[in-house]
Design goal:
The chain is α+β, with helices and mostly antiparallel strands. It contains 4 helices and 4 strands. The two termini are 19 Å apart.
């Protein structure tokens, strides 16, 4: 099913729908073992490691470009040799399938 997430595209979320429950989020998360649920399941994040600052910065730029093409934007922090990416659908103050699609695509950027 990870391939399903990877091939998915984000659908516009206008709010007014409930976020995924903890158990629904955990089912998606099982496909993305390097990610973790935080804030009582309202957000997901992963920390990535790199050998230097430039590789971390290039990864952050690639995630930003991906976010722009999908219309879904993460919180990103980074420094020398690391980057942390956090996904959440702010309009519903929690997680949506879009967040898991973007996490799979983020992982794919690292593998590419």
């Amino acid at each position: 099913m990870t391939d399903d997430l990877l091939s998915g595209t984000c659908t516009p979320c206008r709010g007014g729908i409930p976020p995924l429950t903890q158990s629904e989020a955990e089912r998606y998360l099982a496909q993305l073992p390097d990610w973790e649920l935080v804030d009582d399941g309202a957000r997901m994040q992963r920390r990535f490691r790199f050998g230097n600052f430039k590789d971390a910065m290039d990864f952050v730029v690639a995630v930003g470009q991906l976010a722009e093409t999908q219309g879904h934007h993460p919180d990103i922090a980074f420094g020398w040799g690391w980057a942390q990416v956090s996904w959440q659908t702010r309009k519903i103050n929690g997680l949506h399938e879009n967040d898991f699609i973007m996490a799979a695509k983020t992982d794919h950027l690292l593998a590419a």
